[in-house]
Each structure stands twice: as C-alpha cells, then as structure tokens.
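Spend some time on the protein that follows and explain the fold to me:
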Amino acid sequence: MMYKYYFYLKYASMRSAVFIQLILVWLVAFHGPASAMDQPAKLVRAMWTEIHEARNDSSMILLLGKLSHFYYDYLGNPSKADSIGDLAVDLAERTFRPRLRLLAFNIYLESNDLSRNYLKALNYAKQAEKISASVRQPDQEWRTIKNLSEVYLAGYQYEQAIQTAFRVLAIAGTVDDPALEAESYLLTGRCQDGRNQKIEAFRNYLNALGLAENLNNQDLLRNCYTRLSQFCLFCMMIEKALIYKIKERDLIKSCPPIDSVALMWVQYDLQTIEEASKVSDLDENSVRLILDFAIRYGLVRLKNFDLRFTEPISSGKTG
C-alpha cells in the first residue's frame, strides 16, 4: 500500500509540474516576460481608473473592495488592503445610508486579513450585524453573520464562531438557496474543526460536498475539495488529502480559461502534502517552478509562502 501511495504522490507531483511548465511557456509566449512583470502595476492602475470613473457610491465601494482584495490576495500587501478597505468604509459612512454602510463593512471583512486587525474587524462585523437586523434582507443577513463568524474564527474564538455559524445555517434554510447552505456547512465544519470536533466537522464538509455535486457548482466544488484536503492533511490522512487536492487540480484544468494562479496554489499544496508524507523527497523542480512563476507575475503572497520550501532545499534536507 505504501509503495502504491508513494508512486501516486510522485506521479501527481510530476504531472502538475509538467502542466505548470506548459502554462509558463504559454504566458511568456503571449505576454512576454517584461509585460508579465508589469502586469500587477497595470492592473492596479486600471482599477484606480475604474474607481475614479465610478458613477455612484455603491459602484465605487465595490471597486475599492476589488482593489483591496487584489492587494491582499495577489500582492500580499495586507497593510495596503486594509487602508483601501477603510476608504470604502469611510465613503459609506459619509453617505449615512444603511445599505451602503452594510455593503462597505462586508466588503472590508471579505477583502482583508481578519487576524491582523482583529479588533477593528470585530467592530466592523458587529456594526454590520446591527444594520443587517434593521435592513431585513435574508441574503444580506446571511452574508453579514457569516462574516461575523469568520472574524471569530480568525480570533480563535471558537465558541462564538460556532454559535454564529449555526445562525448562518438557520438563515440559509430560510433563503432556500442550496449554494448558501453548502457554504454554511463548510463554515460550520471549520468551526467544529477548531473545537476539535473532528467527526462533526468531517460530516459537515461532506454535506457541503454533496450539495456542490448536486448543483455542479465549480467554485463550490473547489472550495469543498480544498477544505477536505486540508482536513485530511491535518488528521494525517495523507492519501485522502492527496486525492481531494488532485480532484481540485483536475477541476481547475477542466474549466477554460485555466486559472493559472489557482493551479499554482494547488501545486504549492501538493508540495505541502509531499512534505508531510515522509515517504517522498520534496520535488525541487516543483518548488523552483512555483517560485519562478510567483516572481515573474508579481504574486508576492504565493512567493512568500513558497519561500519556506527553499531552506530545506538549500541545506540539502529534502528527505
């Protein structure tokens, strides 16, 4: 069984590395290395132009949220993401309009590192909760309470997180939206996981996966595979973790145009599984491919994550 698993792990890593090399060739061929390096700056300038040309406050708030998320998730700059998210909140506060304030608070919470500015995030989440109670829109209430639970999770407040997650599940039932219900199961599972309720967490992850499969919702399926792979990895069910991660990778590859950044994050996760397996040497080529891709295309957050693999390689400790 171990030899079969070892082959499976190495084959999966090899196939991913080859596929990534093809993506790199394609990107450089069509965009060129220089334009690739300039791409993040161009995107930022284009987004600022959109913000300045926005026709109303709600559009501007949405665009500021998009830019904030780009700084956090793509460029790995949580400080800039925070300040841009605050711009959206300040703009909404000046309008004195509850719905815009609710929108800005939720956008901030969905675009930033909640653990970095935990007290601010908690303050925004509680203000949003109060506004949501007066607005009385079930879908917005679901979004708001979900974000509150996410804040509690970021602060390791698992008791508060699970209580709000149960509220999220209840609201999803009233909205009659299976996609929201699946997201609620994932959130509840993460809260239970944090409380070391592993069986309950796994059951809720599988509940979410069942709904995602019935809906054939690609984004939901990817999210479910990610959570299940992480859960299995932390429980040292390495083969299961690998299977779910490969399902996620294959799903990305099956949806044109291929999201090369998402694929690179999957390759990073495969490296993490390799490192945890103790039966496989770390694939040096894979590490360097990801690092090269991240530097070439300005993916600062991915680069910083992948750099942790370069120390064992440089010291020769890859097995």
Notes: The chain is about 85% helix and 0% strand. The two ends are 20 Å apart (CA to CA). Residues 2-31 form the longest helix (30 residues). Residues 149 and 161 are 5 Å apart (CA to CA).
